[in-house]
Amino acid sequence: MGRERSSNNRWVSGALIVILLFFIFFIPSFGWTVHAWLSPATGGSAENNNASTSQADSPTLAARNAALAAQLAALQVVASQLPTSTPNTIRAMVYSRYPLNFRNELLVNAGANEGVTSGTAVMFQGMLLGQVLKVFSDESLAQTIFDNNLKMPVRIGAHGIDGLLQGGADPMVGSIASTAAIASGDIVYSAAPGIPYAEPIAEVVATSTSADSLFQQATLSFPYNINDVETVLIMK
Questions:
Q1: In angstroms, rounded to a whole number, what is the distance separating the alpha carbons of residues 171 and 128?
Q2: Beta-strand pair 121-124/105-108
């Protein structure tokens, strides 16, 4: 009786194996299901596949987030300075020169390809900052009023009193007639050929007599720090 039952069990087991092999070989989708069921650790389930994909994508997503964060930071830094360009101006960003922080010149990211020409005025927040000295394909070098070599005819106040702007670490206006009536708060504005007339430059702080006692000279105040300038407008 025991032998007969054992024989029957072998026949049943054999029949199940044959049926299973039939499905595996002749119905491939069933075979893949069985394989996934027997090997869950290898990513057979949809959840495992999604987790694996998420892990693979993590470095890519992190890199993208870092790039976006950097762009956002840059925009936030210059947002307060962004001027509104017009058909007569070219907006440009100032390249950093840290830690040297030159005040006498600025390198900007607009050049001949953007329509920049040598000698044109460079503006910052409505103030004359300097003029283009050299032009390259996609960059320009601007000489600022903080350059020791800059000398520019200017006028002062409502009466248009003539003077000569002398650049440097502390720009000043010299060669002012000794009898001219100049007061603190008078505006110094451009009057040089090749630069738009009457562009504001600075404000008079105080006046004194020149060393030779022949002229007056004026010390100036500026409503910005040249080291903080990150965007400019270049006149066409």
A1: 13
A2: unpaired
Task: Tell me the HSE value of 213 on the side-chain side, using a 13 A CA sphere.
Answer: 0
Question: Nearest CA to 163 among 172, 175, 151, 152?
Answer: 175
pTM over 0.85: no
How confident is residue 42, by pLDDT bands cut at 50, 70 and 90? very low
91 in the same domain as 73: no
Preceding amide of 40 cis, omega within 30 = no
Let me know: does 110 contact 139? Beta carbons within 8 Å.
yes
Please write the tens of the pLDDT for every residue from 129-188.
999 999 999 999 999 999 999 999 999 999 999 999 999 999 999 999 999 999 999 999
Range of the domain at 63: 2-77
Among residues 24, 54, 77, which one ends one of the domains? Answer: 77
Q: Tell me, what's the pLDDT at 35?
A: 52
Host H or E run for residue 205: strand 200-209
